[in-house]
Specification:
Layout (H helix, E strand, L loop, with lengths): L7 H10 L43 E5 L13 E7 L4 E6 L5 E7 L2 E6 L5 E6 L4 E4 L4 E5 L6 E7 L7 E2 H6 L5 H7 L4 H10 L5
Antiparallel strand pairs: 1-2, 2-9, 3-8, 3-10, 4-7, 4-9, 5-6, 5-8
Helix pairs in contact: 3-4
The chain binds 2-acetamido-2-deoxy-beta-D-glucopyranose (2 copies).
Protein name: Germin-like protein
Pfam families: Cupin_1
Family: Belongs to the germin family.
């Protein structure tokens, strides 16, 4: 995929701006006790190399570089994700319980928004090069309504910010249809339709 705006230094800017929220550590860094000796390779994550040369995926896709993928992040309170939005794709409303999200558009245009605890919507159309902050723990979304693909890099102030997807959390976890019907002031049939659409077992 084409990334005319991408520059490696951007990663460092994003990481440096993130404020720490994970527990502090008492050593410079944490090495897994399964490693005998480490060098620069331990602090290098190469798992995103190929994505810059490949085509946009057909669906909205998140590629993470967090603690699971990159063990050297342990104790450092930073991580990032690359978000790829083919034309018309959406990252459905979701929450990151353990971090704010600093989203930087490096390709295309994105409609984004979040809702605060008074149910006020704050939204924006982000152009190439724009940065938007989603405050910690608030429901937010991103949508590519444009005729070209979009890519964003998101930095987090946690090695494991966590994601709670609102549609899946509510409709794909076995909550009784009648409870959901009452909660959404609709009928069980409508709830079943939504569940089916999300690929949940009816
Ligand atoms: C590594 O540390 C874990 C947790 O402290 C411990 O359970 C495990 O036995 C250790 N493994 C080795 C190879 O020392
Ligand atoms: C924000 O959302 C409102 C309501 O959906 C919409 O009319 C408006 O165009 C959006 N603004 C931006 C900047 O995306």
């Amino acid at each position: 995929m084409a990334l005319n705006f991408f520059k490696p230094i951007v990663f460092f800017l994003l990481l440096a701006t993130a404020t720490a929220s994970d527990p502090d550590i008492l050593t410079d860094f944490i090495v897994p006790n399964t490693s005998n000796s480490i060098n620069g390779d331990f602090f290098t994550y190469t798992g995103l190399r190929d994505m810059w040369n490949s085509h946009y995926p057909p669906y909205f896709t998140v590629t993470k570089a967090g603690l699971k993928e990159f063990p050297a992040l342990d104790g450092q309170s930073v991580s990032l994700s690359v978000l790829e939005f083919p034309e018309g794709s959406v990252n459905p409303p979701h929450i990151h319980p353990r971090s704010a999200e600093l989203l930087f558009v490096v390709d295309g245009t994105l409609d984004v928004g979040f809702i605060d605890t008074t149910n006020k919507l704050y939204n924006q159309t982000l152009k190439l090069g724009d940065i938007f902050v989603f405050p910690t723990g608030l429901v937010h979304f991103q949508y590519n309504s444009y005729k070209v693909p979009a890519t964003a890099i998101s930095a987090f102030a946690s090695v494991n910010a966590g994601t709670v997807s609102i549609p899946n959390t509510v409709f794909s976890t076995g909550i009784d249809d009648n409870i959901l019907a009452k909660a959404f002031k609709t009928d069980a049939e409508t709830v079943q339709k939504i569940k089916a659409g999300l690929g949940a077992k009816p």
